[in-house]
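Following up on my earlier thread - several people asked me to post the actual chain instead of describing it. Fair enough. Here it is, all 146 residues.
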Amino acid sequence: MSPKLKKFIQNWIINTLAVAAAAFILRGGITYKSPSDLLLASLLLGILNAFIRPVLLLMALPLLVFTLGLFILVINAVLLYFVGWINPEHFAVKNFSTAFWGALIIGVISLILNSLTGSGTSRIHVHRGGRPPGSDKGGDGPIIDV
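Reply from S.P.:
Thanks for posting it. Predicted structure:
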């Protein structure tokens, strides 16, 4: 298996788990009929994030600077709501408020899972087995670098 395909599948699984967790936490707000519908919705969300999100970020750049990046949450919510709008009989998002909280949950869970698996481009890294090289302090617990 090629490394790019492996990374794609790993990111897809992480995205699917994050969407499933958001649907579980926001019971009734985000719904899907079967696991295959969840897989398809997370794939579509990943495609939208890859191709449409950069365009939306560029268009909203002044607003992103003004809100110190918090408008990214609104953009993520719009994309999640759009996924539910495209195929409402298989994956539905109740309203924009639910999409906002769902996007926040998906973002946090994706960040955590990407950090733990070492995939993605997060700036948080978890080191196991002691301190990073060059550190003179002792300790054997996990270290989180931000």
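The longest helix spans residues 3-25. That should answer part of your original question.
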